[in-house]
Write a structure and sequence with these properties.
Helix content is 20%, strand content 56%. The protein contains 2 helices and 9 strands, in the order αβββαββββββ. It has an 8-stranded antiparallel β-barrel. The longest helix is centred in the first third of the chain and has 19 residues. It starts with a helix and ends with a strand.
Length: 144
C-alpha cells in the first residue's frame, strides 16, 4: 500500500515539475543596414518580434533627408522609433493598416528576405512597391 501511494505521489510531482520546465521558443527577425529608395539614413533597422506580433523600426535620418522632411512637417524628428502591430498572412508579414478604409498603407515583409515593400490600397485598388533593401537579415530563436 505504501509503495503504491509513493508511486502516485511521485507521478503527480514529476508531472507538475515537467509542466513548469517547458521552454517557449519564439523568433525575432532583425533587418539592418536597410537602404531606402527615396531617403537617406544613418541608421535604419527593423525588428520583427513574432511572439509579441510587433514590428519596431529604429532610424536616424541623414542631414539632407532630415532637412527635406522638416520643410513640410515641423514635428519630424531626426532620430525616431516606430512600433506597429503585425500579423502573418500566408508567407507574408504585414503591419497594421495606416490610413482610412478607402486609402491605407502597410509594410510587407517576407521571412528571411532582405526586401521591404509597401502595400498601398486606394478605393479597393492595390499596389505593392519596393521601398527598401537591407544588407543583413538575421533570425534569432528566443528562449523563455
Amino acid at each position: 500500500m505504501k509503495k503504491n501511494s509513493f508511486s502516485i505521489k511521485f507521478l503527480i510531482i514529476s508531472t507538475f515539475l515537467f509542466n513548469f520546465q517547458t521552454e517557449v521558443f519564439s523568433e525575432i527577425m532583425l533587418l539592418t543596414g536597410c537602404k531606402n529608395l527615396n531617403d537617406g539614413f544613418i541608421k535604419n533597422e527593423y525588428i520583427l518580434d513574432f511572439e509579441k506580433s510587433l514590428m519596431t523600426r529604429n532610424y536616424i535620418y541623414d542631414q539632407k533627408t532630415y532637412k527635406k522632411h522638416k520643410v513640410t512637417d515641423l514635428s519630424i524628428k531626426k532620430e525616431n522609433t516606430l512600433e506597429r502591430f503585425m500579423y502573418e498572412d500566408k508567407n507574408l508579414i504585414l503591419t497594421d493598416k495606416i490610413g482610412y478604409p478607402q486609402f491605407y498603407t502597410q509594410l510587407v515583409f517576407e521571412k528571411n528576405s532582405p526586401m521591404i515593400n509597401i502595400k498601398t490600397v486606394i478605393n479597393g485598388e492595390e499596389a505593392i512597391s519596393k521601398i527598401s533593401t537591407c544588407s543583413v537579415v538575421e533570425v534569432f530563436e528566443k528562449e523563455s
